[in-house]
Amino acid sequence: MNNKSFLKRMSLLYYFTLALPLGFFVYVWLHFYDGSLKPLMTEVDMTTTLLIIAIIILSAIGGILYYKRSIQNAIGAKDLGMKLAGFMTSNVVLFAAFEVASLAAVFGYFLSENGLFLGVYIVLLFYSTTKLRPDKQRIIKDLKLSDEDVEKLDI
Questions:
Q1: 113's torsion region: left (phi>0), alpha (psi -120 to 50) or beta?
Q2: pTM of the full structure
Q3: Using one digit for the tens of pLDDT, what is the confidence trace for 92-112?
Q4: Which of 4, 2, 1 lies closest to 136 in space, CA to CA?
Q5: For residues 43 and 69, what is the distance between their CA atoms, to the nearest angstrom?
């Protein structure tokens, strides 16, 4: 895999993990808005709400912690190909963790039509679009690439 296809693959994975929860959210929100869909539960108890919030928080924070720990292995790799492979693996897990968190937030909204879940989903979406998007600068910064490796990167 060359460097340009690497970035295309990373971007494709990233956009897919954004699109799936977003599509589900738009579907649910539009049907709630026009009244053709009702929440699954008319009254959601505090325990259920806290359980869903815990899943969201644990998934997002767990993904970030895993990423920070696993990216260290990629930084220590000898050649650029191994570094990029480690970067991709770390990001796939991070993207999956944020997708689980986002889907849990949308499911919580679908379950109860509670604005708290809507707000949490928007925060997750904002964080994902500002901090997780794979680009050349993020690769260089996260992998702490040397000038020699940056020249080889050619993305």
A1: left
A2: 0.91
A3: 999 999 999 999 999 999 999
A4: 4
A5: 40
